[in-house]
Automatic annotation (TrEMBL):
The species this protein was found in: Pectinophora gossypiella
Gene Ontology biological process terms in this record: positive regulation of Notch signaling pathway
Ranges for domain Nucleolus and neural progenitor protein-like N-terminal: 1-108
Protein name: Nucleolus and neural progenitor protein-like N-terminal domain-containing protein
Cellular component GO terms, alphabetical: nucleus
Taxonomic lineage: Eukaryota, Metazoa, Ecdysozoa, Arthropoda, Hexapoda
Residues spanning the signal sequence: none
Family matches, as InterPro entries: Nepro, Nepro_N
Length: 109
């Protein structure tokens, strides 16, 4: 998603003045914000650090409960961010597809 986030960010930067009051554009901005949060979320590092403290065959010590809760909270935040990206993308797509079906093209020029 790195390339898509960069394209979305550049599109928003270029057309900010023109479409700032457009409903679909606002949804694109929400998608871009969620993508930036996703890119800042380093969930793989957290899971790997938790996995590294899991015991081997003979060890009796387990990771603390707080470590497990932290990883679970990070996974929940990841799922909420991805849900936000999906919902806002679908809303923007439906909005613009309805405009195309109605034949409104003045917003593109």
């Amino acid at each position: 998603l790195h390339r898509e986030a960069a394209i979305c960010s550049r599109f928003l930067y270029k057309f900010d003045k023109k479409f700032r009051n457009d409903i679909g554009y606002r949804n694109f901005k929400k998608v871009n914000t969620a993508l930036r949060k996703y890119l800042g979320l380093n969930i793989l590092k957290d899971i790997e650090s938790f996995h590294s403290v899991l015991p081997t065959d003979d060890d009796q010590y387990l990771p603390t409960r707080q470590m497990l809760e932290y990883v679970l909270v990070r996974l929940l935040s990841f799922s909420k961010i991805m849900e936000r990206i999906c919902v806002c993308s679908k809303v923007a797509a439906v909005f613009y597809l309805d405009r195309v079906k109605r034949g409104e093209s003045h917003w593109m020029s």
